[in-house]
Every structure is written in C-alpha cells, then in structure tokens.
Amino acid sequence: MSTILPLTIESMVAILLLFTILYCVRLNGQLTRLKADESAMKATIGELIAATEKAERAIAGLKATVREADESLGARLREAEKFSEDIVKTTEAGAEVLDRLTQIAGARPWLLGVAPAPEPQSNAPSPKAIMQAAQAVADRARARVKGLAA
User: How many Å apart are CA 45 and CA 57, to the nearest integer?
Assistant: First the structure.
C-alpha cells in the first residue's frame, strides 16, 4: 500500500494539472474574445463620437439658417409694412385728387352713372368707388377730346 498512495496522489495532481491547463486554455479563449469585443466597442464608440460631432455641426448650421431666415423675414415684414403704408397714403392721395377733379369738373357721381356710395366707416374710400369715379372722369375727358377734335 505504500507504493499505491504516492502513485494515487501523483495521479490526482496530474489530473488537477490537466484540468487547470484546460481551464487556462478556455480562459485564454474568453480573454481573446473579450479583447476583440473591446476593439469592436472602441470602433463603435469612435463612430458614435464622429456621428455626434456631425450632428452638432448640422445643428449649428440649422441655427445659423434659422437666424438668417428670421432676419430676412423680419426685413421683408418691415418692407411689407412700409409698402402697405405707402399704398394707404397713395390711395388717400388718389381719393383727394379724385375729389378735387370732381369738384373742378363739377361732376356729380349720379350724372356719370355711378351710384352714390354710402359713407365709408373708415377714412379711406372704397377701391371700387375710386375705380368707378376714375373711369367716369376718363370717359368725360375722352368725350371732351373727341368734341374738340371734331
């Protein structure tokens, strides 16, 4: 029995060493896969950082575009308001000129075939009435020119 005991112990140590070697091989494979996953993860993180930077640049570009559009739209709105004010002033001036012309010519709107317009609630006369009166004045002027030419 004295020779079996050392042989059994050495056999067990050899089996344990074999299991240890197999475990180390398996652990080495897992470490290799983990390192490969790490490099893939680093590549993914790099791509994510690049995409984030690109998105930040795009957002900055969009903000600049919005600022430019806001300034352009503001300028156009101010220009439109000025144009609208000019139209109102021109319309009022045209109405005054038309009133003076009708006073000078001594014309009455109902004699020109224009129904008298009801008093507008605002200071500006209606565009339709202005057009009708202008047409009547033009017709009278043509009639006078034809009468002088004949």
Answer: 18
**Digit-coded pLDDT (tens) for 120-139:** 456 667 778 888 888 888 88
Q: Is the pTM of this model over 0.70?
A: no
Burial class (CB in 10 A: 0-12, 13-18, 19+), 28: exposed
Please report the DSSP string for 2-13 in residue order: TTHHHHHHHHHH
- Domain boundary assignment for the chain: 1-87
For residue 122, the number of C-alpha atoms closer than 13 Å in the C-beta half-sphere is: 8
Calculate Rg over the CA atoms of the chain: 49
Residue 139 and residue 107 in contact, taking contact as beta carbons nearer than 8 Å: no
Distance CA 121, CA 68 (A): 41
